[in-house]
Amino acid sequence: MGRRRVMMLIDMNSCVGCMACVVACIRENIARQNRGDVEIPEDAVYHARTKPEYAGMELGLTGDIPIFIQCQHCDNPPCEMVCPTGATYIDEDGVVALDHGKCVGCRACIAACPYGARTIYRRPLAGEPLSGGEGFQPGYPDKCTFCRHRKRGEGLWTPACIEACAFGARLFGYEEDVIESSEGRAVRLLEALGTEPKVLYILPVKGRR
Amino acid sequence: MKITRRNFLKAAIASGLIASIPGEALHTPIEKPRGKQVQAIYSLQPRKEAKVRTYRSACFICGQKCPIRIVARQGQVLTVMYNTDGVNDTQYACCGRPHTIFEAHTLKERIRAPLARDGERGSGSFKEISWSEALDTLASWIREVDPGEVIVFSHQGCEAGIVKEFFKEIVGVPNVTKHCDTCHTAIDYASWWLFGKLIGPGGFRPDYENAKLVVFMGRNPVEGIVAAPWTKMFAEGRRRGMRIIVFDVRRSRLTSLADKYYLIPPGTDLAAALAILHVILRNSLYDEDYLRRYTNAPMLVYTDTLEPVELADNPRIEGKKTYKVLDETDGTIKWKTEAIQPALLGEIVIGGRMAKPALQLLKEAISSYTPSWAEEITGVPAGELEWVARSLAYEAPRAFIDPGYKGTRYRSEGMLFRVIHLINTMLGSIGARGGVAWNKKPKIKSPFKVLGIEGPGPQGEPLYKYWEENGAAFVNHKCYSMLAIKSILEERPRRYRMAIIFNQNLVAHVQGSSDVIRALKKLDYVVVMDTVFSETAVYADLILPLPMFFEASSPTLFTPSKTGRGQLVVVEKALEPPPGYEVRSAWWIVKELGKRLDPGNSTLYEMLGEHEYIWRKQAEDLGVDPEELLDKGVVTLYKAPIYHPIKGKALYTATGEIEILNVEGLSLYRGEVGKPSSFNPFPAWIPPAWMSQGPLGDGEAVVVDICHRMTATNMWIRYTRLTYSTLKWDRMDGVLIHRSKAEKLGIKDGDTIVLEGPGGTLKAKARITEDIHPAVVLSPHATNPGPAEGWITVRYRSGEERIRLFHRTSGMGINTNMLHRLNDLVMEEGGRAIQNDVRVRIRRG
Amino acid sequence: MGWSRLTATVGGVILVILFIVGIAMYRAGGGGEQALIPWGMMVVGYIFFALASGGVFDSMAIRLLRGDKDIEAHAGLLAWSSLALLAPGIVLVFSDVLHPGAAPYFYLSFNPESRIAWNAVLYLLYGGGLLAFTILVHLKGPTVPLARSIAAATLAFSLLLEANLGMAYAVNVAVPAWYASMAPILFIALGFAMGSGFTILTLRLASEGSVIAREYAEELRYTLLAAAFIAGWSLVGMAAWGDARTTVVEVVMGGVAPIFWLGFVLVGVLAPLAIASRRPPVAGLLAILGLAVYLAIPFNYTPQAARLKVNPFYMLLAQSGPVEAGLWEYVASPETLAFIGGLGVWLLLVLYRGKVLGILGLQG
Residues of CATH 2.40.40.20 domain(s) within chain B? Predict the structure, then answer.
């Protein structure tokens, strides 16, 4: 366990829902800036690798606590467990990643993810996203990679969503530092499933403080 | 290291969606996360690829002009980030909108070359012409018409200031107007009553960072426009424990963050505000010391004639008046400047006439506006309104009702903001840290002044003078776009022949789109300068295509100074326009026009292209080091906004104080006391226009447009698929209608519905929800092309092209202006719009 | 009397055409986006054919190993039928996965935690054993010692494959109604039931062994009841568990309840019971129909759809996303054509067994 592993913290108090992270993610990983045109899948936000959902309030189950639908980079990822070809794996930084070359397209990972993190798009898209082979590829289950294609050499990198957030709502760093920064206020989603996510949330604080 | 439950989630409750954590931890104030190994959030990711460059720019999608950095490589946008000076970081931010520029670059709706009308006006047929042909034509038209026959409409965009100044000062057009009468003019009007001058919302700075409690009515700082730095301060305030109470017609991200929110019928915030003011006055929850020192609350006024007992020149402040008060220390009447403890309440008989302090009169004037009265109008329980008022008073002065930005545009809005200012005054929060501070804004020398280009100035009387003599009051002299449309239609005070429309979508923005179309059709020449086709461009004779803001550098510095910190920003060109796009910046158009119209100054006009030279001169003029500015792209001029109740000097009122009862207003409008009128010197209930027409029928609703987190006043953003996809994700890709109403009308989600307003009819897609007040139907602004629906045909040299507005998106929302009439303007409040105060009939389409 | 060979042939050809068209349409993107209901009718199809093939083989192999003399004469036919059922199943597996070219990684990059990876191994072992057994039976007869050994091993692989197919569902934390369900044992029971049904039909098509068909009809009753019992028990167990309860309510009382009661309980259990003693082929056909409906809708579709109501993330995705996940979208898909069409492959292979064996040189 020599390597340091990465983690993300999202503070829902600071998140104002401006969509900067979502659009930045689409630009980085989903869309194609081709000569003279931009290719974007229909329902780009649905296919973005992170997207806020505030409708919880009308559903009664999540109260009015907004959440981000995105890969939680579980330590114990159900998607990796079911992947028959080892296409989904945890890399040295702790990122749950997909090797497109090995993916047979059985969709077991989509069925197995309790976070709704994986989408799939089956229509053609011309060109390549900025993130190249790590980007959105039609016909393959797609999910957040923590923008690990941005890694240069050793050390940390900055995912596109972190870079885009002007409100300091997202933090990305090494596991122990992120946990320290969260000061014990962070929670993980669907804790009972034992998936051990590496995306942490600080929930909105309400009432008299 | 694995996270163990012990060190991560102490005693986590591992059930349900979210593992809960102990209550105590939830109430710990939130500090910005720190950690030495944590990647700096603000650092620019270095990239090794060739030709990657970072450009300093500012976002012009709304009026805020947030500083941004654009990282690009060979025409590809790699990254967009907010720019910051690194020191005053909470004053800098950008929202999600500028992140769409990579798509905006290649929008199908973009205008690619200068175009001339090719067919009837409004037919949507155009043909490409050369720039020299276009400029020669425009110059000949300008020479042909009298400057007094021209109206220049300018919204925003990098160089709106240059265009306005050129036409006003050099060409001599007296009528050069901005758009605020469709936006915040009611807020300006409200300021006059307390502060003596029309002050736009940019004059105030809600100090969220230091506030303890903020109430929002008609303002959404997390989704609205001109908001990003305010949003950041808002987020910072929340980190420090600011609580939020929201009154709105819909649930939103703001209500989800709020500690408490109330869904109320549209335009009834005024009733809630009156009740809050009532509770504060009835229970003496105001700040007595503040009222005595900084306001005219103790001013004695005769109750029979409502005249101040006596006014005299203030010996301490030149040009300001002082007045008679009752000194509580000895029970005598003195000049305020001499009194030790002026009385705020009570009554006294002077020479057989009853006189009372202004605060006493105010208290009596609103005595009937009880919380129970407001409950009947708003549906908010009286006890809750009482609680809101008491909570504000408890946290005062670090508590306030937000003074707003873009207007709510109901009939009652002007009075709402007057009452809000009054409440904030009672709380002593105007000018207080954690209250409503005053903004500082640097004056940037214009490029014309820097270069010494001068002209004859306006040739003739501006048209607002006429309207001020004919029913209009409180006109903002920079913003009278709707009065101008009225002037064109009614040919008053004269006939107009030409409109020059810069980056402004009049048809979509002005109340009464069909009236605007009629007005445009009456003119001889309509010139539109814009980046994309719009509902207005369809009616142009000549279209000059502008680059997107990130495709050109600007000859002037900008200030996104709604933060009150005097920021200066440089705007560089980050991307080339797509190949073959013949687009030109406003400064270039002005330069070429200038050379044609004013050949003597040709050399000076050429200098407009020397951007860095102008930036340096402007920076030096403000005492800023140009090197630092050019290096960072931004600098912050002031350390803090102005924390002083009256800005540390006399205000613009007659007394120089905050006037809770306006001395000039009393003398002008005494006759209006007791009436539901904008001129009533006392706060009064003015029902929204829709409410005055009786109860809503089942098939009726009030149509409201909102600012969505991915739409803005800059029209192109609504054409992006990114915005449309967000609208779809938010289930706002149509018009929201409450489930109860939809069921009564047999409307299902996704159905096409028809909205019939007094000024027009629209087809839209129904989106059924329970997140809005049942009285409203609602959608983001200008998401329906309305009468301009249909195709635009352009004969480019490269071949014919057919484009439709909302080419790749839906256009199935609404535009309140298309349902409304121009005649319903509120002339008493600057001829402003009441776009959200229109009743429509709804049926299945 | 009975089915006309011509009618069956025409039916078989039509079904094979549907099979090919369905697969082609699906490969061209006709399966829609698969984020909400990732496993469609084609997955049901290959599970159905795998269970049917295994079931036919299992009953036959058990009888053979037990020394049942009556079965020996039919062993070749039934092994062939089993193979003919496996064939469309395997075609459907490779048609369903979006990137069949990556299939070598099932073995090159084997993930022992993945049930699908084990399926890949077990398909190979079972398919290989079945093929070997079929060839051997046709060349040397079913009683040679080697055939018995292969039958024993293949029986083990077959049962493991059936159970493992069930585990591919059961080892999944994200779909409450599948998670930790009794799918493995249920699948074995379903296999036997379908095996009995297909055996009866195979014998009927080949006009062989009406006595043994009655025996199979008897077996069909017990195995159907066993499967119904396990399925029912699963439902009762799930009804006590909050997240899965939605599925139970949906299956028993909700929108798919009529299909559930009609398909599995009425058609699959009660009708065969009533008519088995007199008309085994009708009973077999009804049972197969019922079981297919059960697998397709209450078992495969409903839990995936129910998760859109219990898991907040999927709830929000379903609400805001572009994908419709209704029963109609699920059923009216080219995948259904491929599933139903697969039966044509089996039908033609059984009908023309003699000719095919002749071509293969296996005509004993």
Answer: 689-844
- List the CATH code of the domain at B115-177+448-546: 3.40.50.740
- Whether chain A has a CB inside 8 Å of the CB on B160: the answer is no
Spatial distance between the Cα atoms of B681 and B662, rounded to a whole number of angstroms: 7
pLDDT of residue C209: 79
Any domain includes A105: yes
Q: Is residue A209 part of a domain?
A: no
Would you state the pLDDT for residue A193? Answer: 87
> Has residue A55 got a pLDDT over 70?
no
Query: What count of Cα atoms within 13 Å lies in the side-chain half-sphere of residue A206?
Result: 15
Q: Two tokens at B545?
A: 């295509």
pLDDT tens sequence across B752-807: 999 999 999 999 999 999 999 999 999 999 999 987 667 899 999 999 999 999 98
Architecture field, domain B689-844: Beta Barrel (2.40)
Chain A: partners with 3+ C-beta pairs within 8 Å? B, C
Contacts for B466 with CB less than 8 Å, ≥ 6 apart:
B487, B492, B493
Q: Do A195 and C173 touch (CB under 8 A)?
A: yes
Taking CA–CA distances from A53, the nearest residue in chain C reads C316
| Residue B158 confidence (pLDDT) | 67
Return residues 83-112 of A near C (CB < 8 Å): 83-87, 101-108, 110-112
The whole domain housing A114 covers 6-202
Q: Is residue A1 part of a domain?
A: no
C1 has pLDDT over 60: no
Nearest C-alpha in A relative to B4: A196
Nearest Cα of chain A lies from the Cα of B125 at a distance, in angstroms, of: 24
| Residue ranges of chain C whose CB lies within 8 Å of a chain B CB | 312, 319-320, 322
> Which pLDDT score is estimated for B253?
85
How far, rounded to the nearest angstrom, does the alpha carbon of residue B144 sit from its chain's CA centroid? 36
Going from N- to C-terminal start, the domains of chain C cover: 8-360
Residue B28: predicted pLDDT: 28
Q: In the prediction, which pLDDT does A62 show?
A: 45
- Checking if the pLDDT of B22 tops 70, the result is no
- In A, residues 153-192, which contact C (CB 8 Å cutoff)? none
Cβ of A16 within 8 Å of Cβ of B234? The answer is yes
Q: Do C316 and A59 touch (CB under 8 A)?
A: yes
* C-beta separation of C130 from C159 below 8 A: no
Q: Is residue A207 part of a domain?
A: no
Question: Within 10 A of B338 (CB to CB), how many other CB atoms are there?
Answer: 12
% of chain B residues with pLDDT over 90? 81
Among C272, C269, C268, C274, smallest CA distance to C288 is for C268
Total length of chain C = 364
- What phi, psi does B200 have (nearest 5°)? -70, 170
pLDDT digits (tens, 9 = 90+) for C129-164: 999 999 999 999 998 999 999 999 999 999 999 999
The secondary structure of residue B657, as a DSSP letter, is S
Which residues in chain C have their CB less than 8 angstroms from residue B728's CB?
320, 322
CB atoms within 10 A of CB C241: 14
- Other CB atoms within a 10 A radius of the CB of residue A127 amount to 12
Chain position carrying tokens 């397709």 = C296
- Angle of the C145-170 helix axis to the C183-205 helix axis, nearest 10: 130
pLDDT digits (tens, 9 = 90+) for C217-229: 999 999 999 999 9
Burial A76-97 (b: 16+ CB within 10 A, else e): ebbbbbbbbbbbbbbbebbbbb
Query: Among A49-58, B48-57, C41-50, C137-146, whose mean pLDDT is lowest?
Result: A49-58
- Residue B560 pLDDT > 90, yes or no? no
Q: Is the peptide bond before B397 cis (omega within 30 degrees of 0)?
A: yes
What's the token pair of residue B569? 């920003």
CATH code of the domain occupying C8-360: 1.20.1630.10
Q: Minimal Cα distance from B708: which residue of A? A: A18
